[in-house]
Amino acid sequence: MKLRTAFSLFVAMIFCAACSDSSDAPKPIIIPEGEIVTQTRTFDIASFEAALREGITYGFLTVENGMEVLFDEELPDGTIEITTHENIQPYVDVLVSSFDPAVRIRLNYDYEYDHASVKLRMSPNLFCAFDGSHFIFKDEVARQRMAFLLSRNSYTEISGSCESFSVILNGGTMNATNMNVAKAHMSLINDAKISTINISESLTGYLTSGSKLYYKGTPAEMDIQVSDGAELIKCD
Hints:
The protein has a five-stranded parallel barrel. Strands 1-8 form a two-stranded parallel sheet. The chain folds into two domains: 1-17 and 37-123, no CATH class; 140-236, 3 Solenoid (Pectate Lyase C-like). The chain starts with a helix and ends with a strand. Helix content is 12%, strand content 52%. By secondary structure, it is mostly beta strands.
């Protein structure tokens, strides 16, 4: 419950930040040019370490829609590899909040970008809540809690195990075929799809607008609303 409340506050924070960044004035347009290069950035992980010492076991990561993230535990915590056109590199912002703790990765809002492609490689170990559109977990996860806020046309691939697993999915796809969770809370809309997650204890939430949730297991608690052409499909 604490993670879900904190995640809701995080969503509100991101929404307010997006609103404050908006402006009616036209912005300069940057067209990607030059070679595609990879640069390494680091960010201060002190706030995350302090939170862990205080018993706060979650960190938030929000990534601008369209950026692709490969989570690789071979990279040290606090290190990000950024791959994009060389003239786009200076405009990739990595913002760290010590309050949450949280990291936000985006293209600088003072400009518009003509089809800029940005790929990120980083460790997932500091984070339990993820907001974005394209997440690939290279290694199996083993977590107490994870929460995802995924945008339309998103794609996520994850495997491993988690005690409490929460997903808000708006029209995207999550491949969770090798993911085992005890408690799952799912909110799927606009033809969203999750396949094929293994759930052992409880499944709660709602599916609507043509969404599909494929699952395995026999959770004792089932409290999930299905409407408007959505489907809950048991695969055992």
